[in-house]
Amino acid sequence: MASIKDALPTNVLSAPGPLVLLDSGESVRKDREPYDGYAGIYDRTGQGRFGLRMLLWARDYWAGAWPESVVDVACGTGQVAVALALRGVRTAGVDRSEAMLARASDRAERAGVDVPWVRSDLAECPDVPGMPFDAATCFYDALNTCLTESGLERCLAGIARLVRPGGELVMDMITDHGIREVWGHGVELREAAGILGVWRSDWHASRRVGTLDLSYFVRSPDDHWKRFDEHHEHRGWDPVEVGAALAATGWELLRTTEGLSLDPPTADSYRVVYVARRRGP
């Protein structure tokens, strides 16, 4: 097997810090909180586009009639929240990453919309200006960062606090099959303009958790390369498990689909979209 080192440009190899040979079994440095470094290139690598595709799915589900108010949980760089605000929806965003929220705030300012941003872990979901909301969104498998049943229930209960009775939650999660079989064990090289990323994925059967160790090299205007490393963990969740967690935390499951389609999920589904209604009072 060819070394990842062979695929990297020469001036990347001279970047500060030791080069990690991801195909050698060595460990990646984990010197950042998730998204601290990634926030700066998140939109440049196209990661935010999936949230907008999910928003279009939600628009179709809502038959084009947007809720009057929406809280976007795990809002990242604010693409979904700002898009909603530009459509006249009263919106707020919640995320645990200060670096991502700084990007979201800049985006809202450039767009000329007023969106309150709240820094919080998903399991906490403190008071958010404008609550209770008519709906909540949580896109791009953010809830897969919940690694235990109790953790998932805490997150769903926290979101329920933000939504009025009868309000809806639209979210997506990767399945156990997706994390185990699609992520699995592998190395992937990702490129964008001035950006080179090396993703190493591993499956840990005893925990049902997939890990992603990311090493990114970002070209600066003076043609030097800045490196950062991050470690991410996701657990796959199947519809029966998610349905049980929703029921235990005040939600009624209304619909599941295979990804962005209208088809029901199957045993081989990678991603499932869920719609749930907040029970009252």
SSE arrangement:
Layout: H1 10-13, H2 49-61, E1 69-73, H3 79-86, E2 90-95, H4 98-111, E3 117-119, E4 133-138, H5 149-161, E5 163-174, H6 176-183, E6 186-192, E7 195-204, E8 209-219, E9 225-235, H7 239-248, E10 251-258, E11 271-278
Say which CATH homologous superfamily of the largest domain is assigned: Vaccinia Virus protein VP39
Helical residue percent?
Answer: 10-25%
* C-alpha termini separation: 59 Å
* Number of domain units: 2
- Quantity of strands, as a count: 11
CATH architecture of the largest domain: 3-Layer(aba) Sandwich
| Biggest sheet overview | 7 strands, mixed
How many distinct helices?
7
CATH class of the largest domain: Alpha Beta
Calculate Rg over CA atoms.
19 Å
Order of helices and strands: HHEHEHEEHEHEEEEHEE
Strand order in the sheet with the most strands: 3-2-1-4-5-11-10
CATH topology of the largest domain: Rossmann fold
Which regions contain 5 or more consecutive residues with pLDDT less than 50? 1-31
Which structural class should the secondary elements be placed in? alpha/beta
Which strand-content bin applies to the residues?
25-35%
Shape: globular
Average of pLDDT: 88
